[in-house]
Structure prediction request, 268 residues.
Amino acid sequence: MKVAILVDNYLTQLSSIRLRLLGEWGFAAYVYDYKILYDTGLTGTVLLNNMRALGISPDEPDYLVLSHRHIDHTGGVKALLSARSRPLTVIAHENLFAKAYAKDEGGEVEIGVDFTPEYLRSKGAELILIKEPYKVAEGVWASGEIPRRWGPSHTGAVSDLVPDDMALYIKRPEGLVAITGCGHSGVENIVEYGLQVTGADRLYAIIGGLHFMGLSEERVKEAALYLKGKSPRLVVGAHCTGVSGMAALQSFMPGVAKPSGAGTVIEI
Ligand SMILES: [Fe+2]
Ligand SMILES: [Fe+2]
Prediction:
């Protein structure tokens, strides 16, 4: 299985120069095997630039799964649809169009989606809004709403609990591969629900935003030790995992936790 990180806060590989890769605050990943794009980053500029750099046509994805409604994950939707010449199936939580707010250094800011259901349909999108796990392909699920019963959620500066936060779960012979956008549901909940939904007996890999930014050192340690206890073979903390979060993961799981950056291609 092959996954490319298309949008990330970081650039961590030398080929960023040759390929003219760009970074921005946000996340997007592409799962080649199932032609699933998961999230779109903040602006669309970075998504489209990095897709072209990696040789992925805007028309290639069959599915777009949106991790949650925040603009740093949904902001590239309009640019993507405008660059395509064929329909796209868009799968998101039914809370996608609810208003969303956060506090940054400048005060309160609106961070919800910048499009309507009518706009999506007018651009050739088939919109599937879900709350329960949704089977996208054989062995692949959009999680639907993730119960918060195994650990705390990670909402930080956000004004609500982000019930729309959804992971992408892939059941592989090696175990569960969980891809997460911002990780608002909390690492324990994302992983445990993934094991439940897929029936996998172990965690193989977790890739994406784990939302360690803004958490206390103790909570980051607790979450990292939880992950270590699941004995995954690969942990790629991207986006809102943050620099100190990635460093913590690498110190607890040397050789397993890897740095992420826009343009990183992961072979599983
Ligand atoms: Fe978010
Ligand atoms: Fe985010």
Q: What stands out?
A: The first strand starts at residue 2 and ends at 7. The pocket of fe (ii) ion (ligand 2) is lined by residues 27, 70, 72-73, 182, 209, 239-240 (CB under 6 Å).
